[in-house]
Design brief:
This protein is α/β, with parallel strands linked by helices. 44% of the residues lie in helices and 14% in strands. The protein is built from 17 helices and 15 strands. The strands form 2 sheets. Strands 3-2-1-4-5-6-7-8 form an 8-stranded mixed β-sheet, sandwiched between helices. β10, α14 and β11 form a beta-alpha-beta unit. α9 runs parallel beside α12 (283-306) and α12 packs parallel to α13. The longest helix has 32 residues, at 200-231. The chain is elongated and about 80 Å long. The protein starts with a strand and ends in a 5-residue tail after the last strand. The structure holds nicotinamide-adenine-dinucleotide. The site of nicotinamide-adenine-dinucleotide has 28 residues, from α1 and α5.
């Protein structure tokens, strides 16, 4: 199959690279000339584990290339995937479909023979039908079908998720398009990974329903965690006990500082907006959005309390700023709510992040960046673990405590325990959904 992938972001680049690894001929297109120049030099513009090697291998084997020339890439392709961004539209919370429709128009002009135009971007119900209308209007003679193929990969584990998916979802209304999609995904269906065929609207809805459900699950355990803190229960044990129930499952039950990232915030917001537009309010999702915002703000209070009510003049060491480990993505990361509040409260903030520094630097003004956790902790009054990168999971806590001005830790990912902290010489340790540890002045 010859595939054109429009958009080389976290989804487009991973999908393009993986499709080429399946054996397809793939041309990845982006309108950002800097990205294309980097890719042509063999550099990966994002941090995604394993992507550089897989990309290099497929470029070497002649199945993968990059261009800014959409027209050339689309001409002669069997399938064109739209993998452009669908961020939240300013003002109303709806998904901004400007990039999708602009791409559809450009594709329409470039179509030569029969082509399946596949939307991989996360798009609200009815978008694929609108894409079809846009293409038809722009190029009335074009021979094409549209298909919806939402993507479920997780940043940080994107290649494995793409290569070994729980399922692939494809929405379409034409047998001819189904033949093309069958061929594209044959390397997966041959290995018994399920490909679920459905109509366009159901495919669009599956993506939003799945993300809103996961956001709900995280928010549920975060709310339970707050009650645990007040009542003496331990949310880690609670989640373990709940998660062993096969009907519930143990995934997405880790209490933390609230969900963030490039998908959950914008997709829950778009689903809520869709509900309002269709007069079927998504009340659960609307509540999840509200509770998640409160949870992020509660994290600020936690750090303030740990610093006796004010961070003014205190040095705060932030470990991790990306919304989760193994990515450099800063979109809607909880750090973007928490860190500015600390800077605004008069704290001197030092931060370290293994991959997020470059992206975060301009988003978090007033932060001093250092190379490692111990440098961040040097003479600090409090350490805050915001992202559970592996290198923050096995810290020498004794060494860290010794370096600090006052050894206090807010562990917002429950990496350590009150016992670990006490043993290492910390005088105070707070986490999520567990008892605080504070040693009073008399020890
Ligand atoms: N990031 C994720 O983990 C993830 C997971 C599943 C689904 N999604 C969905 O996939 C879509 C893409 O997300 P992303 O995170 O990869 O976005 P992104 O912002 O990282 O990348 C989008 C890319 O598209 C390019 N682009 C925009 N218009 C273009 C055009 N007309 N021609 C060529 N290139 C164009 C941009 O320059 C950019 O490089 C979104 O709808 C998102 O919701 C994302």
């Amino acid at each position: 199959m010859r595939i054109a992938m429009i958009g080389t972001g976290y989804v487009g680049l991973v999908s393009g690279v993986c499709f080429s690894d399946f054996g397809h001929d793939v041309v990845c297109v982006d309108k950002d000339p800097d990205k294309i120049a980097m890719l042509e030099r063999g550099e990966v513009p994002i941090y995604e584990p394993g992507l550089d090697d897989l990309m290099a291998k497929n470029v070497r084997d002649g199945r993968l290339s990059f261009t800014g020339d959409l027209k050339a890439a689309v001409a002669g392709a069997d399938a064109v995937f739209i993998a452009v961004g669908t961020p939240t539209r300013r003002g109303d919370g709806h998904a901004d479909l400007t990039y999708v429709y602009a791409a559809a128009e450009e594709i329409a002009d470039a179509l030569t023979g029969y082509t399946v135009v596949v939307t991989k971007s996360t798009v609200p119900l009815g978008t694929n039908r609108q894409v079809k209308r846009v293409i038809r209007k722009t190029n009335p003679d074009a021979e094409f079908d549209v298909a919806s193929n939402p993507e479920f990969l997780r940043e940080g584990a994107a290649i494995d998720d793409f290569m070994r998916p729980d399922r692939v979802v494809v929405g379409l209304h034409s047998d001819r398009a189904k033949d093309v999609m069958d061929d594209i995904y044959r390397p997966l269906s041959l290995r018994d990974f399920p490909v679920v065929y459905t109509d366009l609207e159901s495919a669009e809805m599956i993506k939003y329903a799945a993300n809103a459900f996961l956001a709900t699950k995280i928010t549920f355990i975060n709310e339970i965690a707050a009650l645990c803190e007040r009542t003496g229960a331990d949310v880690k044990d609670v989640a373990k006990g709940m998660g062993m129930d096969g009907r519930i499952g143990d995934k997405f039950l880790h209490a933390g500082p609230g969900y963030g990232g490039s998908c959950f915030p914008k997709d829950t917001s778009a689903l809520a907006r869709m509900g309002q537009e269709h007069a079927v309010p998504m009340q659960i999702t609307e509540t999840v959005i509200k509770v998640n915002d409160e949870i992020k703000r509660r994290m600020i209070d936690k750090v303030m309390d740990l610093c006796d009510g004010s961070v003014n003049g205190k040095t705060v060491a932030i470990l991790g700023v990306t919304f989760k480990p193994n990515t450099d993505d800063m979109r809607d990361a909880p750090a973007l709510t928490i860190v500015p509040a600390l800077v605004g409260g008069g704290a001197k903030v030092r931060a370290v992040d293994p991959q997020g520094h470059r992206e975060a630097e301009h988003l978090l003004p007033g932060v001093h960046w250092v190379e490692d956790a111990y440098k961040a902790a040097h003479n600090a009054d409090v350490v805050v673990i915001l992202t559970e990168w592996n290198e923050f999971r096995a810290l020498d806590l004794k060494r860290m405590a010794r370096k600090m001005n006052t050894a206090r830790m807010a562990d917002l990912r429950n990496v350590y325990s009150p016992k670990d902290a006490k043993r290492a010489g910390f005088q105070a340790y707070v986490s999520i959904g567990r008892k605080d540890m504070r040693i009073d002045k008399d020890g």
